[in-house]
# Entry
Amino acid sequence: MMAKAEGIIIRTTDYGESNKIVTLYTKEFGKIGLMARGAKKPKNPLSAASQVLFYGLCLFSKGRGLGSLYQAETLNAFRAIREDIEKMGYAALILELTDRLTEDGQPSQGIYNLLCDTLLLMEKGTDPAVLSSIYALKMMPQAGIDPELTHCVHCGEKKDHYLFSVSEGGFLCSTCAKVDDYALVLSQATQRLLPLIRSIPLDRLGKVSLKSKTIGEIESIIYAYYERNAGIKLRSRHFIEQLAKFRTNE
Ligand SMILES: [Zn+2]
# Structure
């Protein structure tokens, strides 16, 4: 069956001397694997489309197994992201998370829109670290690991100050802190921002700028949470950490 769909390429693998297998996340069909014949050859019409972060309209055949990609037309080249190594690192994190948290052939309008909107905002200049954190937080229910961020996860009471417990699953008040020796101390900014950025619609985000200490705190909570509670350790995260080290040594 031939199909046409809007989608984003979230992963590519070389296949043989000249082919690639691409993982396309589409609006209509969810995640699908496609063979892009000849895509490793620079002059092949599919070579530009068979890159991670390609966003456009694709024409492909779809069957029980791997389909074939025939044509692709770019909707947004994401030039500003591709030309900036840090943005590209954060975009890779978003794409890897999408790949790890979705199953083949299960469409989700919500995830598709969130993915596109996040990348389009990054292209327009919104802070990539903030955007990838928002994306990762909003995708937590998809991983089945939504943390408690409105009251203490242990006693259920609302307090002014909380710690964060990765193992208990969210905010922990000081009275209950003894249940987790490894509960993380939160800054006031992080405590306020975590529930806020999880619930904020992306179109209402506006201009955000967070202190690098705050966003660093938020990121370490999010990725420790994915690792411990969903068993997901993201390869792209390593690249961003290396990049951050390089920056501070400058
Ligand atoms: Zn408590």
Observations:
- The chain is about 40% helix and 20% strand.
- The chain has a mean pLDDT of 94.
